Amino acid sequence: MTETDGILALDGGGSKTLLIGVLRDATVLVRRVAGGSNPFDQPCWADVIAGIVRPPVPFQIRAAAFGMAGHGESTATTRQQDDLAGSLLPVPVRVRNDVEMACLGAFGGGPGVLLLSGTGSMAWARGADGRNIRVGGWGPLFGDEGSAFWIGREALSLLTQALDGRDVGAADLVEPVCCYLGLTDEGDGIRAALLAWYSGLDHERSAVAAVARCMGDLAAEGNLSALALIDRAAAHLARHVSTARAALSNEAFVDQGLPWSHGGGTFASAALLDAVERRCGASRPPLLPPVGGAVLEAAGLAGWGVDAAWISRLAAGLTNGLSADGLSEGPIDDPGACDRAAGLNVMMPKLAPPPASRKKDTQDERD
Fold first, then answer.
1. 235 Cα distance to chain centroid
2. Element (H, E) at 100
3. Would you kindly state where each structural domain of the chain is located, as residue ranges?
4. CB atoms < 10 A from the CB of 158, how many?
5. Closest by CA position to 268, among listed 56, 86, 111, 117
6. Per DSSP, what are the bridge partners of residue 11?
7. Do the Cβ atoms of 158 and 170 come closer than 8 Å?
8. SS3 318
9. Which pTM does this prediction carry?
10. What is the predicted pLDDT for the residue at 358?
11. Around 354, how many Cα atoms within 13 Å sit in the side-chain half-sphere?
């Protein structure tokens, strides 16, 4: 092998797709960003991935690994993702779920539980024996407990109960939440204003999830109702961790359980993180951002030896220009992906309908 040998790693989610090219000494040489590639809600997902992978790179590609949203959740879609990845590069390519890759990166390939809470919530855990399990991530209809959407929905429920007198204890939420939503008592009153706000939403889930930030701010100020709600959310999230730990119990972690790390925008609330840590112990900062798991997978596929020093150098390269945990970057649109389809000559697979509860990919948990 030459000094210009390299690997490719892809992290494809609902709002962005990130491709990283890494040399054998852990130097990050290539970084490309495109729009989302969730096959369940991005009709041009294959073109997005092809468009970010196909352009040449300044090294000899030895292997690649793709973390792809929804992989493993639908047999038909998983096959299409595997076929696409295999058709793009003449080297060994491994495809896994993007959250599995994120967990792999968070613990540098070692055991641990990655707890995600963004618009949705879930945990992915890897045991000391290499087994993987997923907890939660069932979507907003009957899951996503402790997520930003869940917190926002519960907050709005408390608001309505306070407004009509069913829960006078939640009265301390009325003024600050109405102010946050821009509701006034003019005209037909708060009730009419709230219903008008709801009926005018273009994206209900994201708008409701945004209310969680208000709850986090209120909890930081000592608002009792907000603190109680954040604590309930933390209890749900902690149950994800304890369930994963119990399922992957090992003598090596019998005292404290598997280490855990966290990601997702909901954890911007210090009150939420503190409440989860009271139940689960201190969270371990992730060693690598999500795409780092794909880098480790590709390195193994290429036969490279990876040690702690290598991971440390990789982490420095990956975090240069990325957010601190690699999970909270905003969406980066690529509106030209569909327009470029003919030039890419990629056959767009016809997807089987996703399960009703999982039409959004796990990027929801990370945002």
1. 20
2. helix 98-106
3. 5-108+288-366, 110-286
4. 24
5. 117
6. 18, 67
7. yes
8. helix
9. 0.78
10. 42
11. 21
> What is the Cα–Cα distance from 185 to 124, expressed in whole angstroms?
45
Alpha carbons 287 and 107: distance in angstroms, whole number: 6
Domains 5-108+288-366 and 110-286 agree in fold: yes
DSSP helix/strand/coil, 260:
strand
Tokens 């889930």, located at residue: 205
CATH of 110-286 given 1.20.1630.10, 3.90.550.10, 3.30.70.100, 3.30.420.40 = 3.30.420.40
The packing angle between helices 204-220 and 224-247, to 10°, is: 110
At 311, the amino acid letter reads I
Contact 214, 176 (CB under 8 A): yes
Nearest Cα to Cα of residue 325 among 111, 71, 102: 102
Asked: is 5-108+288-366 a CATH 3.40.50.720 domain? The reply is no
Which of 171-185, 210-224, 339-353 is least confident? 339-353
